[in-house]
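Why should sequence recovery work at all? Because a backbone constrains its sequence more than one might expect. Tight turns favour small or flexible residues, buried strands favour hydrophobic ones, and helices have their own preferences. The token representation captures these environments compactly. In the example below, the structure is given first.
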């Protein structure tokens, strides 16, 4: 059996590790035989040298084996989930989960928190007073039995190796590494016992993996590894050069989702949501193609039953339904600042990366894990790319609890908004679909 140092050296020298080597290394890290600095060295070696297909599968398997898995075998309905690698204004899960549940499918969703400049589904949900993502696995299963849907965070029992290793990846610059991305994402999805998985792989400036070629590689690898575990899988590559929808934050994104479920038209958000739902309905057998599933979904997004299911999903996890009724009251942090156009023209660019980091400065995300989120802070976009604008018109509004936060956000926003005299290239929201 190789020692931790031998395993690090082997990976550093491009040698392939066996299933047993990887399993022992992960087990050793969990029981204290492998130190944090040894794990850091291993992760850096993987980051620079990559992993073979077999190694990536073995690492995913080791993550799954590090804890308990959820058993949903008693359900006689198809179980399907969607996962995004992270984007700015990416709020699709809040609509997708209840919508798919109305088709009598099971949606067991283990969602994530914000990462870097991108927001997290759990943070958005927790902006609803009372809502708890920290429920037991038993409650999670009971919610699925009752309502077909439940969204929770990763528990201490499910894939603990990923939780512990991710904390090191976050501070060692090894997040944007395809084998580590795949093992982290797929392990959690296999552990939740879904039958099929749709991956939303963001591509563009605001993605967690901004290199286009790398994003395509990630999409292919997610599908490939998921299928090796005997699950159906589809990856949809979606544009993330510009924020998705008109709101970036937490409560304001919930507000936007409710407005869409009540019939408001937010074209890019509806399009991406419908395609992802279409892929889920296709793999579940409800639709004969992704295109048919997209059509069915786009017609049902603003259906009364979708919003009712959303309310039910929130109430099941102690969320205050009365608070949801304030969605049109524009609840915001107390200090605001409007960014206005300095010239006539057309919005040519809204850099999602910079805007995402500006929202963090406002308080909508965390710079470190102990930071407390200000759920009412964020950014409202009044204009999107391609829109005409006059000098003095408001492009976007920033909200925060202090002027200092506004000032820091404005510094991050420098150069992120561009106005041109000509229309920019039409935005292609769906770049590719891989399955």
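From this structural description, the recovered sequence reads:
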């Amino acid at each position: 059996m190789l020692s931790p140092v031998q395993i690090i050296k082997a990976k550093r020298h491009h040698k392939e590790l066996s299933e047993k080597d990887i399993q022992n290394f992960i087990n050793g890290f969990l029981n204290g035989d492998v130190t944090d600095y040894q794990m850091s060295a291993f992760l850096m070696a993987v980051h620079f040298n990559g992993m073979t297909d077999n190694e990536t599968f073995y690492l995913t398997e080791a993550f799954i084996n590090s804890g308990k898995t959820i058993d949903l075998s008693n359900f006689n309905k198809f179980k399907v989930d969607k996962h995004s690698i992270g984007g700015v204004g990416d709020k699709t899960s809040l609509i997708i989960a209840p919508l798919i549940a109305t088709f009598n499918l099971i949606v067991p969703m283990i969602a994530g928190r914000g990462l870097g400049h991108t927001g997290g589904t759990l943070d958005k949900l927790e902006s609803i007073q009372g809502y708890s993502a920290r429920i037991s696995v038993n409650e999670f299963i009971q919610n699925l039995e009752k309502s077909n849907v439940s969204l929770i965070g990763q528990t201490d029992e499910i894939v603990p190796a990923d939780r512990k290793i991710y904390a090191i990846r976050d501070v060692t610059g090894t997040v944007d590494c395809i084998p580590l991305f795949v093992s982290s994402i797929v392990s959690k999805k296999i552990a939740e016992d879904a039958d099929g998985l749709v991956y939303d792989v963001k591509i563009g400036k605001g993605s967690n993996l901004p290199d286009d070629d790398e994003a395509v590689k990630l999409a292919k690898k997610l599908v490939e590894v998921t299928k090796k575990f005997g699950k159906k899988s589809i990856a949809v590559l979606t544009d993330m050069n510009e924020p998705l929808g008109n709101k970036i934050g937490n409560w304001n994104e919930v507000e936007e989702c409710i407005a869409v479920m009540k019939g408001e038209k937010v074209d890019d958000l509806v399009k991406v949501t419908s395609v992802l739902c279409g892929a889920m309905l296709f793999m579940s057998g409800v639709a004969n193609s992704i295109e048919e599933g997209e059509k069915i979904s786009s017609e049902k997004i603003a259906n009364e039953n979708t919003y009712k299911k959303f309310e039910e999903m929130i109430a099941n996890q102690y969320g205050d339904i009365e608070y949801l009724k304030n969605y049109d009251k524009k609840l915001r942090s107390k200090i605001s600042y409007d960014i206005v156009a300095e010239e006539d023209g057309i919005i040519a660019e809204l850099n999602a990366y910079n805007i995402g980091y500006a929202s963090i400065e406002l308080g909508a995300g965390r710079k470190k894990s102990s930071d407390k989120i200000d759920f009412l802070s964020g950014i409202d976009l009044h204009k999107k790319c391609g829109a005409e604008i006059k000098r003095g018109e408001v492009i976007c509004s920033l909200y925060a609890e202090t002027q200092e936060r506004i000032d820091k956000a404005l510094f991050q926003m420098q150069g992120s908004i561009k106005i041109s005299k000509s229309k920019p290239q039409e935005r292609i929201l769906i770049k590719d679909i891989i399955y």
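A few observations help interpret the result. The mean pLDDT is 94.
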